[in-house]
Fold these 2 entries.
Entry 1:
Amino acid sequence: MDERAIIGPMDWIHVGLLVLIGISGGVFGSMMGVGGGVLVIPLLTLGMKLPMKEAIACSLIAVAATACASAASYLKLRYANVRLALLLETTTAAGAIVGAFLAVAFHARLLAGLFAGILVYAGYSMFRNRKQEPGQPLSDGVPLHEGSPVSSLSASYHDAASGVPTRYDVRSLPLGLGASGFAGLLSGLLGIGGGVVQVPVMNLAMGVPIRAAVATSSFMIGITAIASSFVYYQKGYMDPLTAGPVFVGVLIGVQAGTRAMPRIRALYLKLFFAAVLLVVAVLMLLKAMGITR
Amino acid sequence: MNEDSRLSLMSGRILSAGLLTSLILFVVGFLWLAINPGNQVGGLTLAEVLQSLLKGEPRALVSLSLITLLITPFAAVLGAVIHFARTRERAWAGVSLGLLAVLVVSMLAGLL
């Protein structure tokens, strides 16, 4: 176990930089419904010269903090669909366990290459369908969250950007469950969060509006991160003095992200998410070519 | 307020409570460490956290704050199980209980 004395002036600068990294991860993750590892890990490894395993462990804390803080806000706003999250998470969590066990047998670079292709397709689909947003305005006189939903997965929320109460029905559930299992598998195999898969699947295939997809994904990624987090914690990679300031920064960043997200038009959220998918695809391609780990 | 709204509010409150507890533990532990230069830092295993807490070491609080954060989503799923059991939604109680079981298995598999 790492033992060192605390805390000199340089350490305070170090702590400040870690808080800033946490803030950027929190803003980004809460607005996109992803863990933010794609941003936090490179900043920690390249910017703070942290070893990869410590950076991943620290990123898992950032994911858990982003997920809890943003989901708490989105649940109050009724954007997050708890039932849908719980249902999809059953296959995601199972997929993550299988992925973790298969990780030793599979060629990670080949998988990263395949995953990059899927992300490019998802990014392109999101860009192509940027103006088609699922969900319908609730008719006047029908109170929000009351009435008779088509199924228990149907939900409604007040869209702050358009000012219109919106309702949606979830479709293609088997496809969603399969894709969630695949997201979990990738999470276990490649060490990525499931958000980059879950959000496009919910929005493009299952008829969930982008705002609700981001919020529901926020709730899910915290649950997905549990298993791997404990592995990294128990193996001693989670240095509290590194992870702690990142955690505090994330909480600050999430406050900004969750306030901004409801005000951004769905079109811009989709365009931003498509760009995120393409960036992650490039990172995965670099991994596939052996340029990065 | 319908059952879905109650479920959302309850889940949100569990997550907020977990976050707040974790933040308080971290801030107290971190400041305690900062004003006592003689203390040691570094991660503790789950077993070591308990021993360290009994000795009154500040680093135990910092480690405990991270553990609290990591188990908070788990508590939200547990809350959903209790909610569905109370509202007698058997299918949904089964789904959330199944998820809870998968999470317990994955945590145990990770710790072994």
Entry 2:
Amino acid sequence: MYGFQPSEDQKTLVEAVHRFAVRELRPHLRAADDAGALPESTTRSGWELGLLPASLPEAFGGFGERSAVTGALAAEELGWGGLAGALALMAPNLVALPVLLKGSAQQKQELLPTFAADAYQPGSAALMEPRYDFDAGALETRALRRDGNYVLAGSKCNVPYAAESSWLLVYASLDGKTRAFLVKQGAAGLVIGERERNMGVKALPLYAVELRDCVVPASQRLGGEDHTDVSALIDASRVAWAALAVGVGRAAYEYALDYARNRKAFGEAIAQRQAIAFMLAEMATEIEAARLLVWEAAWLLDQGREATREAYLARNLADDMALMVADRAVQVLGGHGYIRDHPVELWLRDARAFAVLEGLAIV
Amino acid sequence: MISFERPREMDERLEFVRQVASGLMREKARYYDEYEHEIPWEFVNLMWERQLKTGESFRAGARPPSDGTSVVAQTLVHVIEVQSWGDAGIYLCGPGAGLGGAAVEVTGTPEQKTRFLARYREGKPKWASMAMTESHCGSDTAAIRTTAVRDGDCWVLNGEKIFVTAGHKSMVDSDGFMVVWATVDRAAGRAGIKPFIVEAGAPGLKITKLEHKLGIRASDTAAAVLDNCRIPLDNLLGSPDVVDPTKSFKGAMATFDATRPNVAASALGIARATLELLKEKLAERGVKIRYGTPRHLLTALERDIVEMEAQLRAGWLMTVKAAWLMDQRQPNTVEASMCKVKAGDVVTRTTQKGVELMGPLGYSRRLLFEKWMRDARINDLFEGTGQINRLIIARRILGYSSKELK
């Protein structure tokens, strides 16, 4: 049976996340972007939502099970509140969910309880590399086997919370295939570089990271020796990214809609002109289009079915949608859209990230 | 619940349609494009027999029962998508109550539904049509000039209608009917516009012309003249009352809420046909689409394919959702217009790209790319142009009346 309505539990969760976004993300959107830092309260109060513990089984201190659909619903609301804050709150997922989904029994025992604890602690994933032709399926960061361990070498960029996380999940190429390794903060050869200076998502701490022959014990290879295929993680990360894009797009759209209703020109609201009204109609249509693709890809993941193509397509569509919608929101506001008194220029900068960055979130 | 599992109830009907589409329809697609207005009787009879035997619907017109658990509308968009994948022109020749029937379902009394729709469950193949457009007005239906004047126990209709899909088939080739939208009170504007059933053989209705079109040439698009056309009083669907200024027009609009997802489905069937053949032809030349590779590293060709696939899937899910809402008995005005806007854009772009990417093969009438591009274009025009549907969406999201957003 088809179904296009979140369950009652999911609705309750979405409402709670929305309230949080209204109360804790939106008010700090501008100041956090200017300061390049989120208030400490964002992750502290956000953690009380219990999003990650609700994805972890009781055996590891959580109280639920992981659902990509539920995760995507929450991500849209968080993205609506603000991309940097959303990514901050979802950063623990970057380690916890890969370990949950692909980790060995020992890795789960060791790591998951810390992510089900009462206090927020960030997680970090190092996927991107600083080159124009970066491709998650063809990494230049290498993992080599040596003396029963793995040795990682290469450059990473845009690594969230690299300096603050106890564990980093580093993606590297092993025998030509993308694999993931759990690297402990402070490991020899793990060099945390400077904060990245990007056009958007400025409030999120992102770092350049160097791996200089960083030795990782074999037991810290994600999945041990057996379940090491990370393509499902890349898929889930694309779904999360696309869901966040839907949220950012929706934020810009709603703001433009509201502005167009209130801004008067030639004796009536500008929304009463088809030139503006049609833009808004198309924005709403594209948001819905992207959202449904995201939901389907997430649903496939929850069903344990192949979702690589769907996640990729959803991400591509959502990337375009978020940029188009944010750009049009700027256009609807006219000159005011360019002024930093309004958030639409911020959303345009943030929206540009979707086609360019990846691996910053996972559901 | 969020789920994308196709209901199993529709499997058998879908399988039947798949066979008809890939065998009969696709095989004859070029023939009925070249021999405009010839009726594809083999298809018509096959579909009609199946409908008589099973009571299933393959055309717009069926309304789901009210318990909110049916999958009638969802099934319909699936079978329409597959038929249009076979051939959209031939699909539009499918017998049954169609758009005219949908108007009866939405605006008619139970007695009228029985009286007018029973014929579609027995005897020879029949069609129904819907006559709204006039030469001076299309989307601006409030400007309809065709009049209905009461004369004793009859309504007398006068005027001229154009662009009536299956007009000829409903009135000349079969004992069907045409739903004619006419005004009982010009001064009342929209409130005076009512739907009337004119049955085949009614004196005073004459099919005067069949249009020659860019595409969907198998489908007849007729003009009809109503010259003192007399019909029984109770052939007026719903109430003759003009007091409520919105009610009857709402009937017309509700009809479109019901049928727009079907138009979207038909559009997307053409788009899928194009995309599938496109990928097949590219594969023959050794082109592999690298799903998962960052988009800016793909070739222009790969990017086009990836974008088309994503857009097609999104349009399809929007269409299924609009149909699902209908089955759930939930309002779907916005979703119906959204899926039609999306599908109209998707099919136009995909089929035009099909011709472009195939180069001389795309332009050649040996293959179907050029035909699909011509067939596709109607979908952003009929049952509400892309602009009208944008207007509908905009009014809803802004909470504006038709006066506030013209």
